[in-house]
Every structure is written in structure tokens, then in C-alpha cells.
Amino acid sequence: xxxxxxxxxxxxxxxxxxxxxxxxxxxxxxxxxxxxxxxxxxxxxxxxxxxxxxxxxxxxxxxxxxxxxxxxxxxxxxxxxxxxxxxxxxxxxxxxxxxxxxxxxxxxxxxxx
Length: 113
Fold this sequence. Notes:
Distance between the termini: 28 Å
CATH class: Alpha Beta
Helix content: 25-40%
Order of helices and strands: HEHEEEEEEH
Shape: globular
Number of helices: 3
């Protein structure tokens, strides 16, 4: 485990971590929100097992959205919630491609708004 200083946003914290992580030493990166301290170890083990079985660079849990949502860009008009999901943590990624993507993202200044 490697702990780093957070940033002003979740994404900035993730990018700070990715700058510090050696992808040879840590082939997997698991991201979890500190504001959700009750991580179920069995759920995490299940996610790691599922991740090991697929040939993807990451696995991200999500839940359906039951709340009414609006599109701010379209004058707060109703949006079809079936087109969206709420992304959860923990999230598991192969460190090397995720680190490369995070470093590229950190160079986009508007990315952290």
C-alpha cells in the first residue's frame, strides 16, 4: 500500500497518486473513497476475482440512478436517467495504462473543475 497527499478534487488526488506509483511494483491500482470507510472485504475480493477473469484495463462498479436528473447544458431540461449510472468505488485498474491516462489527464487544466 502506498498513501499520497490528496488534491483539491477526487481526480486531482488520483493523478497525484499515479505520479507516485511504480507500475512494476504495483501492477494493480485500487481506488476507494475515504469518505466511504466501510469497505466490504468480500465485495472487494469478488471484484478482484472478476477483474482477473476479464481482459480489460479496469473494473468499476455502478448503480442505476433512481432520482430525477436534469441536463444543465440544456436549461435544466429532464434527462433520461436510464442513459446514466452512478459510478461507485472501489475501482480496480491495471496500473500502467491507468497511470499513463492519468498523467495525460493531469495536463488538461480544465479537467479538475
